[in-house]
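Q: what does this look like with magnesium ion bound?
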Amino acid sequence: MHVHFALKADLCFSNELGPDARSAVDAAVKEANGRLFCKGVPRGVPPEEIGRITLWDVEENILFLEIESGGYTRAHDALFRFRKLIGSALGKHHLGLREIRVREFRVTLTGDVMESAIPRIPFIQSVKCDEGNVVLDLQVTTQDLENRVPDRIVKLIEEKVQAAGYGGKTEHWELLYESPKKERTYTGNPTDEMAARHWIRHGSSRGQWIYGPQPIQLFRAFTAIVEEEIIKPLGFSEMVFPKLDTWDVLSRSGHAKGVYPEIYYVCIPKTRDPAFWEDVADYFKVTGEVPVEMLRERIDGPIGALCYAQCPSFWPFVQGRTVANSSLPVKIFDRSGTSHRYESGGIHGIERVDEFHRIEIVWFGTVDQTTRMAEDLHGAYTRVFNELLELEWRCAKVTPWFMAQEGMVGACGCDAVGTTDYEAYLPYSDAWLEFQNVSVNGDKYPKGFNVKIQSGEECWSGCSGIGLERWTAAFLAQKGFDPAEWPEAVVQRVGTLNEVFRFL
Ligand code: ATP
Ligand code: ZN
Ligand code: MG
């Protein structure tokens, strides 16, 4: 895809530009086109690719400019370089630059750009397609240009074109390890069986279960195994991460780039004055129904989302700080609270729910420390699944959607960044279920939250999400409901199953 930028702008000065000022402008334009705009541009780049002032004119206190470029010293970058030059050149004539007004900003893309790749956002005023060109007229302020809005739009279009080439949300999947096959002793669906035994019952919200004592004994047994075999030996410390993620957190974590269809949104009351809410309460008292439409007018936000990925809300703890070498690698985990995802039609049993429980392990340090920890974790997990849980499982390297969206994989050219999914075989459905993952996230989080390490080296982070519903579903699907058939490590930690509820 080839890109061409063209802008028209008015530079407004404090006073009328007289003949002397005009010749100063003429000299500045020659200097800019001849030298200033070529700075930093590699040799051999054709001149039409480099930003240049193609037209200028003066009327009273206004200097009018037209700037064009290809991909080098883009028109808006050229504008800002020229702003500095002309500011000091006309300063000598006692003229101060008061304001820059962007009159027109046109981006022309040449190549295979389908219409669906053009974002529908307010900056793009009009889109014209003709003969292999897509012409975008942008409405942007100087501030928008300083924020690199045109560059981001072009990048976004490039990403959309690329994504369309992949055909949607495909994950690259590459098998790393497969455990030995296990004898099939049970072929039932564990969710159905648990529901029949009244171990679990649907909660009142979609994709939500109320867990009775027995499955929680399993949850706790798995948690104990994770603690004894992974968290303690590898030296992770427990923290409590917030479970409401603000837009700021989700922006810095990168989730704001695409998480919208899958989050639970959080709103707050416009005021906590009871009088403001009295009619709502009265309506309920009279009808027995909560008036949702009335609520809509009385709430602000959404201010963010319920916990989606668990680790993003940790990062403000170290945001803007430099972490001492003696603390590295930082190794922490969170097992407080729930995660929430709007899984829509995808809800299935306890393995794909809207409200789930997860232990999230997080670590960061140098590139080497971070990738080594991912390997250590893989080793520990392998032992747990093979020797303690005796599962039939496999793991595969996948490219997660957020990295694919950010163009991180490939862009950094390194194999170390990415996610390993751990999958268990489900005999009842003859399918594999992802029950946890280990991700090396590169510098994404340290960069997003501005975290540095003492040595000044690149800081990388990783995380691993252990889904307790998924572990339970995988375990019961393979081992069934007779504790006599369960591996010793689990039986020991579960103890006797508590039959608390009996019904008439
Ligand atoms: P899937 O592809 O199955 O939707 P995912 O790629 O969305 O999974 P991640 O974002 O990697 O999952 O989340 C990490 C872990 O959190 C998963 O391995 C799983 O254990 C758990 N998890 C994610 N979504 C759910 C869900 N809807 N229900 C239960 N557990 C979940
Ligand atoms: Zn994470
Ligand atoms: Mg998912």
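Residues 309-311, 360, 463, 465 surround zinc ion (ligand 2) (CB under 6 Å). Residues 200 and 211 are 5 Å apart (CA to CA).
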